[in-house]
Here is the input.
Amino acid sequence: MSPNESLISNPSDQPAADGNLLAASCPIPITDYKEIVLAHGSGGKLSHRLISQMIVPQFANELLTPMHDGAIFSLGKERLAFSTDSYVVSPIFFPGGDIGKMAVHGTVNDLAMCGARPLYLSVGFILEEGLPMDDFWRIVQSMRAAADEAGVQLVTGDTKVVDRGKADKIFINTAGIGVVPAGVDIQPRRAQAGDKIIVSGQIAVHGIAIMSVREGLEFETEIASDTAALHGLVQAILEVCSDVHVLRDPTRGGVTSVMTEIAQSANVGVLLQEAAVPISEEVKGACEILGLDPLYVANEGKLIAVVPPAAADAVLAAMRQHPLGKEAAVIGEVVSDHPGFVTMKTRVGGRRVVDMLSGEQLPRIC
Amino acid sequence: MKYLDEYRDEALAGKIVDEIKRIVTRPWVLMEVCGGQTHSIVKYGIDRLLPKEVELVHGPGCPVCVTSLEMIDKALAIARRPDVIFCSFGDMLRVPGSKDDLLILKSRGADVRVVYSPIDCLKIARANRHKKVVFFAIGFETTAPANAMSVWQAHQQGLKNYSVLVSHVLVPPAIASILQSPLNRVQGFLGPGHVCTVMGYREYEPIAARYKVPIVITGFEPIDILEGTLMIIRQLEAGKAEVENQYPRVVSRDGNRTAQDLVNKVFEVGDRKWRGVGSIPKSGYKLRYEMRDHDAERIFDVREIDTKEPEICISGLVLRGVKKPHDCPAFGTLCNPEHPLGATMVSAEGACAAYYAYGRHLQKPAASPDGETALAKAS
Here is the structure.
């Protein structure tokens, strides 16, 4: 999507929003929805549009506009990465993790995707009146364990409580700062034709783990979330190839959204090989039952690396040596054809475009 | 994954395609009836594998798409009520009525819930006795047994706060309607595998005989669809018009008698309006009189809602296989999954939505047969 087409404003019909979000003098950009709908938070096209039309133009600057997982800037001799993320997952406890663990891992990973070594985190809690103290304690303990394990310190924070019904038990925001080593330049726009695309392991695990509890579905084998801090894996990659072009963790919107964003920001094409994408039997089965496409399902402990072709074998080998990258696989390559689009060679040899969804992936009827 | 990987095998797919290429001597137009088949065809790029002689057109078998605008307006009127918990299959939520859709109502505070099975609604009804729980009972014969089961159980258990808004449709009258149309181009059908799992395929035999078209009951995996296509081409090339079963691992001639009996206890055949097509006689199920206490249309008195459909869109022609999605000037521009103008763009299974989801709006319509079409550059 070109940023220009999104900036059309409508001076006559639509008066400014109440003046809270945007400066009162600015007309609200035309969006197709008069209210925020859930799909605006799904990581698909509507999320993308909300950010690129309503937010980015208002604050446009060289750090924000590339829309990376975090901002990278210099302070004295050091290059720092800075990122933030909010966590509203429901249920707050799920197989393989909880909202607190995710809140630490998520921001650590956003920093890691900038190539940074994460150092410090902040945390903001929004708590709903009535949240059991035991639950809150479990979450805090879990965050501490996750931070210790990741080697980051939680150095500042805030707590707010809202009336019952005004939030869903607990929402957490974390922000983080890390140091980017010299010589590392990881950005979505650096993807170039010929680069290999490597995923660090089986996809769609986290989303299915959450859904399996949320929908009250019971599978014979429990699917546990893959939530994990990825900076160790990133370090292992950088040791064998400091010239990694892009790193992304495919969270909301799954592999598809991340690959589309890379294709768009680097103005290159992406060709995926469906048969090469690692997916566990359990997740495949769950996706079949639920009518979902794993390429759109969220991950929390996986990364996608776009690396120069000459380094692909070494990066793959290094990833497979690491506990979080044992099932790493090359799933495609960057091409010069069809810039801005992701295509896929299907398992039966056909070809199709893989496009971002508009909103939530809804289960199909049959 | 067992029972799936075998049916997605590239080498086997290649063999079937080669065989189709070997036997085909002239152009044929085939229709896959089911939305699930359409979805597979575009998801796996199957139409791009077939020789140019074989043209696949996409049928009316997406239950979400063919649910009439008027029925959706009725659903919205009911879901808006504060005393209602409105339950639905997931992909019905985004289908626009003449104004809103169920997702928008949800964002404004209506209690709209996605269920995987109508039986889940009974649990919700038991847990919320002070509320009225309504299930949007849509679908072809495939979903009819489960929907019927929910009504039957509520009836047996005296669960008075459960009702269904019924918009069930049937495949055979739709196929007959396509074949009777003077615009018809379809020469053979990939029959609906899951509908026939319930109903069997006996009722397709008179259609094949009367209209002299081969009907091959077909599954949903790529190998199923390719094999079904091969079986139809074999018949067409040999001048035959029979019902064959490509999907015997699931489908029998008589179908599931227990399910049929249950459906007949709860539903009876009646006329039904199809979105984009209009009313087709005896083409749907409605609740039997004995089940009237569970009839949402009666309970909420929405029977008088009568909505006309917009005239600009060609979805009626797409549903009948006369036109392809990219024959429509609005396709991918004015009409897209966020703002569907018509039936076939509204659900992931609809032909237009399936074309859109798999990037056909980005491609030049004249694709080379090997699928290596250059993509139109992003504007």
